[in-house]
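Hi R.,

Here's the chain you asked about this morning:
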Amino acid sequence: MIKTLNSMLCLVLFMAFVDNIEAARVYRNSVEISQQNLPQIEGMRDLLRRGGNDLVYIEGSRTYDTLRFGNRGGRLPFRFTFTDRFNTKWTVDLTSTHDDITLVIPCGTEMYWFGADENPTRTGSDAQTSWAQVLFTYARGSWWNSAGVRISFLGFKEKNAGEWSVDTARWNSIMDMAEKGVQITGAVMDQVSQGAALYASGGAAGQK
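And the predicted structure, written out as tokens:
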């Protein structure tokens, strides 16, 4: 009896170890970014407010999609990719049933997620959408569906379209800072503008 209990305990501990052996990973154009430095909604709103703009949630834009990974037998890790409105390619590795990843991305009326059974999986949004907050979590499987990744999507628009906004150059500057460990808030607005000027002049390549 004791031997059986010990064997069961070892199995439980082993499964917990396997489930948490590696944290989720996020890559921007093949370069890993720490989760704590990924753009978040309050940080992006703070940044835009410094320029007289803001992000506003679009009522009714919340949607849910699930990427099913029957092609892997529903076994972790799950890798999927997507490209944002400014042509940044993202790669996400979900490695644990407890993983959750939240980030804000520039987005249009639709997003395409690649790597799962339905390839690509499409998420549609309101015509006003210019940004999205996305949350990725583990989705359990069932008799009819394999396990996968649940996507929670919230659409946002810029409050003052004619005011200071984040364009491709500024977005690249923001993400360069995130890669270096900088958390994105309004406090980095001057650096964002300076970095955008470098991209616009073609000087960014010489800075890397």
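The longest strand covers residues 148-158.

Let me know if you need anything else.
M.
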